[in-house]
Amino acid sequence: MSARPVLLFLHGVGTGDVEDDWQVALSGALVRLGYPALDPDRWIAPKYAYALHNGDGKYHVPPVTVKQPGKDEARTNRRDFERRTSAMEYRLGQHEDTSLRPVANMIVDIAFETPPFKQAHNYLNDEQARARVLNRVLDSLPPAGELLIVGHSLGSVIAADLVRRLPVSLTVVGMITIGSPLASGSVRATDLRETMQEPPTNLGWWINFWNGLDPVAAHRGLSSVMPWLLDLRVTTSPSPRVHTAAEYLSDPRVAEAIGYAMHGSLSTELVQTVNAVDAPLDADERVVLLALRYAHLVSTQLKDDLQDRFLGALRVVQSTAVEAMLQRRNSEGRARPELIGRLRFDLADPGATAMPPEPGMYLSKEDALVQLIVLASDNFLRPFDVGFGEVVKRQAMRDLTAELGLGSVLGGDVLDALDQAEKVLSGSKGPNWIRIGALGVGAVAIVVATGGLALAAGAGLAGAAAVTSALAAFGPGGMIGGLITAGSLVTAGGGGIAFGLASSSTSSEAVESIVMRQLAAVILRQKLDLDQDLAVWQLLVETERQVRRSHERLDEYSDPKSPVLVELRKKILIVERALNFMREQGLEPGSPSQARAAAR
User: Fold this and answer.
1) Torsion, CA 236, CA 238, CA 242, CA 248, rounded to 10
2) Which residues pair with residue 230 across a beta bridge?
3) Where are the alpha helices (DSSP H) in 34-101?
4) What sign does the dihedral 508-509-514-518 (CA atoms) show?
5) Which one of 67, 265, 491, 573 is most buried, by most CB atoms within 10 A?
6) Calpha distance 184→153 (Å, rounded)
7) Alpha-carbon distance 135 to 498, whole Å?
8) Nearest residue to 426 via CA among 315, 581, 552
């Protein structure tokens, strides 16, 4: 930051604060974090308690200088605002919800008569008082530059009212509200809340800190009425001072937000420097880098708003994945590979760029076949969901397989195999990506239902241990866990996964998506003249046996249209279609074509 912002502190009235308490508390908290103490020349705290009740002459509420943007501009503004807000959230850490202490419930019952509620109500309903206060605050501000607004109690109401009335030459780098009553029905701030349905274009970010024990901010933050801001919870012991500004400003995260806005990051070390060495990637890391490379190739095919949304999601996914891989390496005492280290960036810096992995051969041809099928049909941006067309998918996949040295034609073959497998199983005109996406939930259910047997069946005990270890480190959800789980189930076979597919906890949509990918691998191997995985046939046969047995056991006593029976019939049909296709293609064990393959 070239010029440090000026801090505008808007205080509450009748909150129990001693006049200088907030300065002492904030300076102490900043110093404890390593920031400089509050500079007397860099803050403004206008006094307006008298103006709330008294004044000479007639005043006018200052006009709105920051107009609401149009539809397209509003979408862009909100996305940019969210990017900056997410960066602050990452820097401060997501807050953990803890249950409210019983004492807060008792306090809030009488809170409507407390002075902060009365002051906020009077401010919003007395136009002259409102005009006097706003003009007094505006008169105290510099004519231009950057501003950080901190509003406490009534000050938070004034801050929300003020931000759109500031001179256009003043930029608000951020706004912090503490102990705010804006979400309370007793304040009756409906008009103000309605004018703030979108983030003001002159506002960098807005963080509201609230304490569940604070009677003014009891029970909820402000995101319940303005969902685009960031709510973070402050937890303290019960005390008569829970609503004071000093109590809030002593909190490390409140001070960190103010310190960063005023001084920038404390760290001068380049985030990309991670003491990386030329260590080899393990199997899971190769899968992740392949997915990130594919994602960046997809992004180059997108345009305008879709590209912007995709890159925003990819930025978060890449940072999360890279940090997870590096943390796993640290915990296991292994060196950090340079290929991963160079992808690291500071997610707390909204201007930091997510660099794409370098193109290269990350996987063998056999392993690439499975992972390409997963990438072409899975949501590799999980937990985000950004859809894009078949043309984009096909071109990016062709580019990826060309980079892998496998030829661009293979990229088209992968999508053709998925298309054909989907038609075999459902008879639809093309892949149903909504149904295919069911693998994300179904895969986790299968792993849980089988206690890892599904993975052991496909990868062997040693391989299953490696996969289980990876899932323990990364979790079954998210981008990394999703790719590892999906890849393991495409190659898995035998009784373990059959039990999971037949389980009532696995939907027919999830079964179809898993069988579809396995069938796509069969089709692709056949096209490339690669050896077939005989475990696929065994899986389908065993799944059919278990599902049919479950159906017969329940059919004798259940209603004919029972949802459980309907799901079982769907599963039977899916498996039958897959087996029939393989039989027609001469892929049944013991068929002449399989005998010739075995002879080769």
Assistant:
1) -10
2) 207
3) 71-92
4) positive
5) 491
6) 12
7) 72
8) 581
Element (H, E) at 261: helix 252-263
Which amino acid type is present at position 401?
Answer: T
Tell me the C-alpha distance between 315 and 343, whole Å: 11
Q: Are 481 and 471 in contact, with CB atoms under 8 Å apart?
A: yes
Token pair 């392949």 is found at: 290
Predicted confidence (pLDDT) per residue in 238-276, tens digit: 777 888 999 999 999 999 999 999 998 776 444 444 455
- pLDDT tens-digit profile of 103-112? 444 443 444 3
Q: Angle, nearest 10°, between helix axes 495-502 and 453-474?
A: 80
**What is the model's pTM?**
0.76
**Do residues 374 and 289 touch, judged by C-beta distance below 8 A?**
no
Q: Which residue type does 240 have?
A: P
Residue 446's SS3 state is helix
Residue 577 CA to residue 427 CA, distance in Å, equals 10
- The alpha-helical segments, DSSP class H, found in 451-562 are 453-474, 478-491, 495-502, 508-528, 535-555
List, for residues 76-119, the tens digit of each pLDDT value.
Answer: 899 899 989 988 998 887 544 444 444 444 443 444 345 666 77
Q: What is the DSSP string of 215-254?
A: SSS-S--STTT-TTSEEEEE-----TTTTSHHHHHTSHHH
Is the Cβ–Cβ distance between 432 and 542 less than 8 Å?
Answer: no
HEC string of 85-121? HHHHHHHHCCCCCCCCCHHHHHHHHCHHHCHHHHHHH
Structure-model confidence comparison of residues 190 and 285, the more confident one: 285
Q: Write phi, then psi, for 198 (nearest 5 degrees).
A: -125, 150
Spatial contact of 417 and 520, defined as CB atoms under 8 Å apart: yes
Cα gap 232→162, rounded to integer Å: 22
The Cα 67–Cα 77 span in angstroms is 12
Q: Which residues of 100-134 are buried (b: 16+ CB within 10 A; e: fewer)?
A: eeeebeebbeebeebebbbbbbebbeeeebbbbbb
Are the CB atoms for 542 and 557 separated by under 8 Å?
no
Cβ neighbours of residue 337 under 8 Å, at least 6 residues apart? 276, 277, 278, 279, 280, 281, 285, 329
Contacts of residue 472, Cβ cutoff 8 Å, sequence gap at least 6: none
Would you call 55 exposed, middle or buried from its count of C-beta atoms within 10 A (0-12, 13-18, 19+)? middle
Which tens digits make up the pLDDT trace of 373-397?
A: 989 988 889 889 999 999 999 999 9
Closest C-alpha to 480, from 382, 400, 392: 382
Residue found by looking up tokens 């685009």 in the block: 228
Q: How far apart are CA 400 and CA 289, in angstroms?
A: 12
CA–CA separation, 182 vs 154, rounded Å? 9
